[in-house]
């Protein structure tokens, strides 16, 4: 399942709140340091601090854009995987009508149970790894039974019908694997840590510059910082499937499962 991520099980709101508190603390500490050293600085050194502040803002904007793009792409991949799996299951379901009896009815029963399990798997938070693996195992067991039906059909009545059903089953299990893999792909944590560190450092530089110039940070500064924290929260929420405010739409999978109900 890959290496354990440090922040994955921590609530997104808590991460955003801690980040905001760390930035506020860095601003306060930076302002105190700036005030104490203000008399030792001239206009050139103050301009240098302002230039560093602008550079950090540009770097943070770059990191935010890059990280948001990664999180959004992974969210799109998960959404696409749901639709593709639903289409693969629907195709296999339609081809059960072409099988000979009693295999057609057996395949329909197995497909219906398979659909129910895949819908249930889509509702389990990705953090509940054991339950998710249990449902994947149950789906794979049903697939093995469906493959046995396809093998028996191919042995008894070889032809395009049997081959077509087997091909649809192959697509179905491939889509299961692709969807499961998409859930495990996240924005690399080193990228998030770098973004957080840049954010806190920016807070310190803003406070330091404020202390040097003896000008308190105004509303625009705090509004910008709150917006950055909101963007960080959105990135984390997008990157966590089946939890938080933003969730992948499961309508396609629910619809195909309902269509297979007896």
UniProtKB/TrEMBL annotation:
Keywords: Membrane, Transmembrane, Transmembrane helix. The chain crosses the membrane at residues 12-30, 50-72, 191-211, 217-236. InterPro entries: DUF4239. It comes from the Bacteria. Pfam families: Bestrophin-like. The keyword Membrane applies. This is DUF4239 domain-containing protein.
